[in-house]
Every structure is written in structure tokens, then in C-alpha cells.
Amino acid sequence: MPRRFAVLTLTLATALLLSACANTVRGVGRDVNSTADAVQDSVQ
After folding, report:
1. DSSP character for 1?
2. How far is CA 34 from its chain centroid?
């Protein structure tokens, strides 16, 4: 039983970490996109 609990805990922790990374990557993508838009507007 303890091994099963450890596997479940590890699975849940991994899912939580991956979801946090996805939010961070999405935020970086938005920042890069807004920076590119600002550069494009300043060139025109």
C-alpha cells in the first residue's frame, strides 16, 4: 500500500508541475508576441 501511495503522490506532483510550466510558457509567448508587435509598430 505505501508504494501505491508514493506512485499516486508522484503522479499528482508531476501533473501540478507540468501545468505550472504550461502557464509560464504561455505567458512568455504572449510577452514575445507583444514585444514583436511593439517593434513592428515602431518601424512603421
Report:
1. -
2. 18
Burial of 42 (0-12, 13-18, 19+ CB in 10 A): exposed
Condensed to tens digits (0 to 9), the pLDDT of residues 1-38 reads 689 999 999 999 988 888 877 777 778 888 888 888 88
DSSP 27: H
Distance CA 13, CA 7 (A): 10
The three grid cell numbers given for residue 41, joined into one nine-digit string: 509598430
Rg (CA), the chain: 19
